[in-house]
Amino acid sequence: MGAQLRVYKRRIRSVTATKKITKAMEMISASRIVKAQRAVAASTPYADELTRAVTAVATRSNAKHPLTTENPTATRAAVLLITADRGLAGGYSSNAIKAAVVLSERLRAEGKDVVTYIVGRKGVSYYSFRNLPVAKSWTGFSDQPTYGDAKVVSADLIEAFTTETADGGVDELHLVSTRFESMLTQTPVDARLLPLKLDEVQLSDDRPAKSEIFPLYDFEPSAEGVLDALLPRYVESRIYNALLQSAASEHAARRRAMKSATDNAEELIKSLKRLANSARQAEITQEISEIIGGANALADANAGSE
Amino acid sequence: MAELHVELVAADRKVWSGAATIVVARTASGDVGIMPGHTPVLSVLESGPVTIRTTDGGTVIAAVHGGFISFADNKVSLLAEIAELADEIDVNRAERALELAKSESDAHAERRAEVRLVAVGRKAA
User: Fold this and answer.
1) Residue A3 forms part of a structural domain
2) What is the ipTM for the molecules in this complex?
3) What is the pLDDT at residue A231?
4) Is A127 a domain residue?
5) Would residue A304 count as lying in a domain?
6) Neighbour count for residue A141 (Cβ, 10 Å)
7) Judging by DSSP bridges, how do beta strands B75-85 and B59-72 pair with one another?
8) Within A142-222, where are the H helices?
């Protein structure tokens, strides 16, 4: 076998192996999207009920709470960035990171110091490679976040928010995550989570809470007490929802990236096969012409000797 | 007879929903029983068992950890970070968790495990 042909054959083999891997990853992601979407749907009743309760307290009492108090001279803002733990998901992580960078620049332009919190290994490695400071990071659950994970993340953030700015606390909390719009579209979004604006409390899928007339609730132990317990839960539930949507987006982005990788591999195999075929043909043609040439030369030599 | 529409939701799933005659839950200010026609109330739940008497005479017991109960227009919403029906609780696991929590003197975990066992105990009684 000719050298050229051998090289083509080897490349075809290696691309075929790659294609098998990407195909498998595509199918795994496809099944996980469904699971992730189901998790988003399963968390909706809780988020909606919680939103209703928060709105009810907000409309029925004018209790003040640290989590809703706006600091007019905000100087430090926290940004929570949600990315993936693993790569091979197309532009998923880099889009989210880009959104976070743009947001951070905007906040700095407003004269605020930006403190960054990160979920997911990809975001962590982006920031550490550039020597950018990260206040805290969490990794290891980006593809299947649980409520416990959201609780851990929000506990730290709420603590930072309730700490005085002078003692290293923050005045604002922004959340950068990826919203799962459809299998094909996932958009990075940023939203201010804290301080909460109670008049624009949103449902989990960003429908504005519909204005209903709330009954005159009796609050136990008191409106303040209820708010005290409700608001951290609300923040947790918002972060949980963002984690779930981001997980669904991650799987969708990975599925699409792997699908195009598989398609490209197929394309590559096709063109390599063509090249290999023509190399083989060229080899055969050459062999035939060599044989014919040899036979002719032999015939000529024999004819001359007689 | 008027009946309550009850929704028991945990952070990551809907645990139980249906019609009931009375719901008993432990709030920050003590156990409350809610029957149809109760005044609208919104209160903080303590870790504790929740008892729901369904309209067909059955009883649903769940262990609930942290959350809220809100009642209005004969609709009861029980929101909890963690909620488990008594049937779903693994007694052996809860007992092990209780011992572990006691040995590590983790008051929260101990309380959680206790509540689970109480819920299972009531179901059996």
Assistant:
1) no
2) 0.80
3) 86
4) yes
5) no
6) 18
7) antiparallel
8) 147-162
Across the interface, do A219 and B27 touch by the CB < 8 Å criterion?
Answer: no
Closest CA to B3 of B75, B60, B57: B75
Residues of chain B with pLDDT under 70: 1, 124-125
Whether A216 has a pLDDT exceeding 90, the answer reads no
Task: Assign domain B4-86 to its CATH architecture.
Answer: Sandwich (2.60)
Closest partner CB to A57 (pick from B9, B41, B42): B42
Is there a domain that residue A168 lies in? yes
Inter-chain residue contact A229 with B12, CB threshold 8 Å? no
| B80 vs B65: CA distance, rounded Å | 6
Measured between beta carbons, the chain B residues lying within 8 angstroms of A230 are 68
Task: For residue A67, give the CATH number of its domain.
Answer: 3.40.1380.10
Which among A112, A129, A32, A41 has a CA at the least distance from the CA of A72?
A112
Give the residue from B31, B44, B82 with the most A CB atoms within 10 Å of its CB, the best one to mutate: B44
Cross-chain residue pair A214–B72, CB shorter than 8 Å? yes
Domain range for residue A223?
27-258
Cβ pairs A/B, distance under 8 A: 86
- Name the residue ranges covered by the structural domains of chain B: 4-86, 89-124
Give chain A positions within 8 Å (CB) of B112.
none
- Say if residue A175's pLDDT is above 90: yes
- Distance from the Cα of B16 to chain A's closest Cα (Å) equals 12
Domain count, chain A: 1
With CA atoms as reference, the chain B residue closest to A238 would be B11
